[in-house]
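Format notes (please read before filing issues)

Several people have asked whether sequences and C-alpha cells are stored in separate files. They are not. Every record keeps both together, in the order shown below: the sequence lines, then the C-alpha cell lines. Line labels are part of the format and must not be stripped during preprocessing.
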Amino acid sequence: MGLPVWPAACIFGLFAHVGENMRFPTLRPSYTAQDPGFMHFDKSVSERFFQALMFELLAIAICAPLGAWLMGYSLAHIGLLTLMISLIAMSWNMVFNWLFDLAQSRAGFERKVAARVAHSLLFEFGLLLLIVPLAAWWLDIGLWEAFVLDIGIALFFLPYTFLFNLAYDLLRARFMARKRQRA
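Then the structure lines:
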C-alpha cells in the first residue's frame, strides 16, 4: 500500500551498520570511485522484485482488512484502494528513484544523511500529491480527510517497513548461510 520502498531505503541506508555490535547480520555497502554514494548489495534484480512484491502483498493483507474495519467500508472497496495505492507507489518509486539517481549523477552529491532526508521528503511529497486525490475520490471524502488518512498510513508504514526489512534480511542471511554450507 502507501509507502513501499522509500522508508526501507532511508532506514536501511541510515542504519546499515547498526548490527555491527549486535548478533544479527549486517550488509555492508561497497563504494566505487566511478559511482560515489551508490550502494551495491549482492541482491539480484529478481530478488529485489521478490522482496518488493512480498512487502506489498503483506502490506495489502494487513491494510485492507484493517482499513475496512476502521473506516466502515467493505473489504473489497478498501482492498481495491490499497491495491491502487500500492501500484501507484511502486510506479512512483521507480520513476522517482530514477530521477533522483539522475540528479545525483549530474550534481555529483553523495547519499549522506541530508541527501537521504531530502530523498525521503521529496518522495513522500510526490506520493502525497498522487494518493490524496485518489483516496478522496474513491472514498468520497474531502481532501483534508484524505490527507489525514495518508498521514495515518505513513505512520503505519514507518515501523512496518523497518520490521519487514529487518525480518527479510535476517531470513535471507539464514537462507544464504544454509546455501553456502550445502555448496
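For reference, the curators noted about this record: The chain has five helices and no strands. The chain has one domain: 6-19+45-182.
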